[in-house]
């Protein structure tokens, strides 16, 4: 049993949990009579919860800790009509303002029911943030969290406003799920488990840290205390691209047509399969306890296929020297890029202790996937399969001290295990039986027809997260939240045994190295933590969010005391020894202001400092400086050394914007932004006392991003709603990748820093979303994405000096359309939805991906070998069609 599972069983045995809602919203407003006079003592109740409040002498009320979602809110007062407002939407860390007028009661027990209208634009926001509710997620043609994130203005393939990958903090219910190895999320979240998603690209609160570009906070669904809910969803599909979709290439025999996506012209509706089920409600026999369980099985066999002409073990008659190749495979078409995943979510919640809410949840899954390797297209069994297990689980507690003050404690365990090997055991006899990958230039231009991929890599993260936060509405104006967070890690990664060519009994063969540098798995135990205070000031329509965050990081590593004598191996030089890395700390201020200029319009400004440690894999990888003991004067090594003593990377963000409701159903949002990026991870060329030189990582890269976004949101135009957003940005820096400088130097090119467009510098991005719907009848959603070409480095010919100025070329512009159509049926208490989803409706073959450097085109090259054997992995996934059904049933629970 994984250590993470043992931890979860211990927690579950210790205590059960009611949803804590560490990510919760606030409802506030004023209750008056028909003359505008306050109604002290009027009560407010958020139905479906036990949350409510009474109005004070001025008629003002506030309700804290409301879980994100859509509610009915009941307002009542003796002698006045009870008013129920439906469709009130509560968002995490936001205030929903609801002012209510109660009429005098004429008929006893009379109730008035009205429906709340969500503002077409939230003029109280102090920075750029998109909040997507569960209802909106279900209407979008997306399947996973990352699909939803990439639809937001300013996001380009996971890059937030021009930042590098790994600069975003992913959180689940307010607690990080990032893997510090590469600063990526350890979880893959399906839309079926999402209650709400917030995507923040502007200045985010001091509560959030270890991020330079943005925050994605996913709030997971939870069970209801008074009703059961069951849902089942199943869909299937395939990639559909015409069989005549091909291009002309020149071969030895002349001109022939080659399929862009070989072997997918025949439609198999079970190429993509998904089945997921969800059950939630009150837990029988245990009072005041709710549960939720969700399970999913997903398979996608992909669109990149291979033909098993050969098995990894060559036929006895195969002779590479004489050019004799015996095809000993079954010639079956097999997937070479697939994903098979089991996912789960479990929650159990309890509120039986007065003023205390407890929650235990676990979310994670197992996955097997393969990445396409064009060289193995005729020997598909020779490639590696990636296997991963991930889980984030733990206990949350909320203790309400008063109607205006509560604290939250979260104890989470994040575990991630990644294996990318052909066989688990480095001494597995099949490695030596099959041998190293081998091909011949006289057979399919060097395609690998024998042997297996010898690459081996594993990575494991075992992290604990402890977070304590206190929230208090200290006055009507000030809502203050302060807290601390500590994260100790156990990080393991490396090569679990290296297989290389070597001398075996006087002949060349495979040998195993397990204990040498570069052939072992090492363990590191860094610690990071933070303390923060955040003040939300709500004074009339003026909104100010001010905060301060203190962060620290201890790598618990060792580095040379003198970089000019890294291995202490230079005679006569000052001695160098290994010394502990220093503790890094930073203070990050945050400020956002939203100022009303009209009844339905405001301007806002935000500014903040943001710090993040680089991915720890780059800090610790190749950080054993003893390998430089033989570094000689005049020699140069471009194998970049790790550096556990790096400081955090830094970004200063400036943002100014304007928000307005132009009409009741038309909203406008304009904002300008600028990011000053410094101390990014890059390469330092270090000289020694003997004038030798080596490369190591340092905080030397830099960049800046500037641009603006323009958004229009037109709602309820009959059954039609339209949202349009346009982003212009310039992302400039000295390198797109930390190793880029070293790679340029190794290629004999000028490594000196200069500012050029970054690889993801997509100047123009346009997203158009169209929704045509009738409640309980149908919904049709289309999303159009237009993008200008990202940069690439063109070449003239091949060989030394062929490259032109870095990123001086531009790829072709691109367009993509996704579509989802749903039809709803109701049979008694059963709700049925039939849906069709089409991704890449127009079958676009290119969308800002790979282009050949000599032509700037994704379709043709001047290289005759690449032209004869085009790699389909360079193209965008073809049209994907999915058809499915969703069943839902809700019923009231009997009183416990």
Description:
This protein is mainly beta and 896 residues long. It folds into 3 domains: 3-115, Carboxypeptidase-like, regulatory domain (Immunoglobulin-like), CATH 2.60.40.1120; 129-220, Ferric Hydroxamate Uptake Protein, Chain A, domain 1; 227-302 and 337-373 and 385-421 and 453-892, Beta Barrel (Maltoporin, Chain A). The strands form 12 sheets. It has a 22-stranded antiparallel beta barrel. Strand 49 (764-774) and strand 50 form a beta hairpin. Mean pLDDT is 89; it is low at 1-21.
Quick summary:
With 896 residues, the chain is mainly beta. Helices cover 5% and strands 52% of the residues.
List the helices and strands and how they pair.
Blueprint lengths: L2 H12 L10 E9 L9 E4 L4 E4 L5 E7 L2 E8 L5 E9 L4 E3 L2 E3 L8 E5 L13 E5 H6 L5 H5 L5 E2 L2 E2 L7 E5 L2 E2 L1 E2 L4 E2 L8 E7 L13 E7 L6 E13 L6 E6 L2 E6 L12 E11 L6 E12 L4 E3 L25 E3 L3 E12 L5 E14 L15 E18 L2 E17 L7 H6 L3 E2 L8 E3 L6 E17 L4 E17 L3 E7 L2 E7 L7 E4 L2 E13 L2 E13 L3 E3 L17 E3 L3 E15 L2 E12 L3 H5 L15 E6 L7 E15 L2 E22 L5 E25 L2 E14 L6 H7 L9 E2 L6 E11 L3 E10 L3 E2 L16 E2 L3 E14 L2 E10 L24 H5 L11 E13 L4
Parallel strand pairs: 1-7, 1-8, 6-9, 13-18, 43-46
Antiparallel strand pairs: 1-4, 2-3, 2-5, 5-6, 10-17, 11-12, 13-14, 15-16, 17-18, 19-22, 19-55, 20-21, 22-23, 23-26, 24-25, 26-27, 27-28, 28-29, 29-32, 30-31, 32-33, 33-36, 33-37, 34-35, 37-38, 38-41, 39-40, 41-42, 42-44, 44-45, 45-46, 46-47, 47-48, 47-49, 49-50, 50-53, 51-52, 53-54, 54-55
